[in-house]
Design goal:
6-stranded parallel β-sheet, DNA-binding, homodimer, Rossmann fold, 434 Repressor (Amino-terminal Domain), elongated
Amino acid sequence: MADGYDELTGRVTIRTVAADAGVSVAAVSKVMRNAYGVSDALRLKVEASIEKLGYRPSVAARGMRGRTFTVGVLLVGIDNPFLPSIYQGIESVTEVSGYKIMVGVGAARARTEVTLIEQMIDNRMDGLILVASQIAGETLEHYARQIPTVVVGHHEPAALGYDTINNDDRMGAGLAVKAFLERGYRDIAFVFPTDDEDHSADVAPQREIGYRMAMAEAGLPARVLALPNYSAPREDRIRAILTAPDRPRAIFCWSDLDAIPLLDEARRLGLRLPDDLALIGYDNSPMAGLSVVDLTSVDQNGPRLGKLAAEALFTRMNGRTVAEHILIEPKLVRRGSL
Amino acid sequence: MADGYDELTGRVTIRTVAADAGVSVAAVSKVMRNAYGVSDALRLKVEASIEKLGYRPSVAARGMRGRTFTVGVLLVGIDNPFLPSIYQGIESVTEVSGYKIMVGVGAARARTEVTLIEQMIDNRMDGLILVASQIAGETLEHYARQIPTVVVGHHEPAALGYDTINNDDRMGAGLAVKAFLERGYRDIAFVFPTDDEDHSADVAPQREIGYRMAMAEAGLPARVLALPNYSAPREDRIRAILTAPDRPRAIFCWSDLDAIPLLDEARRLGLRLPDDLALIGYDNSPMAGLSVVDLTSVDQNGPRLGKLAAEALFTRMNGRTVAEHILIEPKLVRRGSL
DNA sequence: TGATTTACGTAGAACGGTGCACGATTCTGG
DNA sequence: CCAGAATCGTGCACCGTTCTACGTAAATCA
């Protein structure tokens, strides 16, 4: 097997190519990485052999010494309708750069996410984009020392070791409140997800702050209603909110994920939107645009977030060490629920 | 650096552990893989060091010789609401077995998917689960020779090199037609996705066959209406279908993905369901259950499909070579649209 | 008790790449 | 025309594991 071709597995290695092209292994490696010191003649020979043999470098072997040309993307969960647009934005950048993406799917639990991050480090990915991670900032700093990291949908403006890319959640909340006020609503509540873990850096608390600020500015009392995230009493709680005698006339909901069930139950109860209840969600998910749903929602511009995140990751992988914290402007998409 | 500890990266390697525990590198490796020939005393010593140092083996390095304990899951796209349930099923199996999952996201294009499969092979994953892949059976055979492979949502009952796990799409279509017939509908159309690529192994054509068979059995003429998949004339086509003078009274739609926009437009046009138009979709996606949507749909039991796929993959990775082709029974979930 | 077997632990060669150090050319400019 | 600088290509030592082959000590058997 002096030519590096393993007849058993049929695997073509860098040695197969080198033998076929009549050059050294190092030369082939150089061509692959288009490193310095390769003549056109050599390049052509090698590329011909690569093409002929269908050679693909082993990412595993590469990972042991050099780069893998792979970035890991960690998503909170797979069922969140907000993720595809961000993913798309990331992909639009990696696609042209020749980098590959590997996705890890968390289950909105910090423990799982930590495991996935470690897995990506162990796989020697070149960089990491964490989307809506639930992990504490301190822990993130720890991992970010081991691998270039960019975080999307998680506010950590003072982080030193990694970048954060977010939409301005406070401003988004402000847009929603302002829209209600313009239409004359005064009794405006905020629906907030309760959770077992504490994550003040997550987007929801930021939206709450924005809501409170806007309400205070208008001289109105804040009213925050909790809604359990996944547990069974969720539907009961929704019904309770909607049937309470002091039901708010307007609700700003931290996410479409909750706004849509809320809207759904409201319609079932015979409430007319926006006359009986005005509702604004967040994320402008595809479902919100259905005419049967017709939910007004704050749009974060997912593709842009993803694009910025990927771009930040690349500059970081190329040596930038000072952290960048980008905030982009959300905008309100008006529909029938307000 | 004789102890294997790299002070620069801070990375703990198998050598660090071996030095700390005062044993050989090979011994540590044995403990990690719980291989044969390890005394309790040795195991304890090594495990203590592993724990103390927080050692995690490098997947990249592992991939060069042995297994990576990672399986790749290739998903058609990230925005398909049918995928989370399957993924969940897969995860429920890998979770307890200590295997990790890496996800590749195709863009419903065979070219992209092929690249991702190669990437997973290059990453030395131990096995592959392809969900709703668009790749031709012949090509799949080629890759399946290089890595244990299980395919979900793609009918290839004669495949030799890989397993297929599916719900019985023909039966599912039959259930839908039968439900219409029971309610007295006779004018039943099938809405079918048109696509640039040809994929007779995909689920939609199977559903079409099931539909045609059930209609023939009832002595009724089949009526198939095409709907472009992503392109712009899509909305126009939906409107055309719904406003045509000979608009069908009942529509069986190959997927909720199309059924929901169809339903949405129907409501917008003032049609009442099921009186003016009866509609059944496929996949029973979360959206179908919203009371504002309230779409009757065929349920494939995604979690079960995922679970079976993962189990098949594990037996295959453990040496099984004869292909398995499993078909499970779908069931109709009745809601207001019929 | 001596001869096998069994159990345990180790040395060292892979695995498939990368990248440094270096030698051999070919280009420069004075 | 020659010294020095670019340019090009190669040899080889890694990277962090696995795993085969082998040595040694303890256990079992006749």
